[in-house]
Amino acid sequence: xxxxxxxxxVLIAPVKRxxxxxxxxxxxxxxxxxxxxxxxxQFETIAKALIGE
Length: 53
Description:
Elements: E1 2-4, H1 12-20, E2 28-30, H2 35-41, H3 43-51
Parallel strand pairs: 1-2
């Protein structure tokens, strides 16, 4: 799970709880990103993580 810590749409606490219930999930947060800026500003980093680079 990738999450922007500045996200006002999806709060970080429920996301962290959800990750603990998913056995293979990993949580990665970005301190300076919000809900939409995360996918725009971190697109390449997230894509590389998802394909295992």
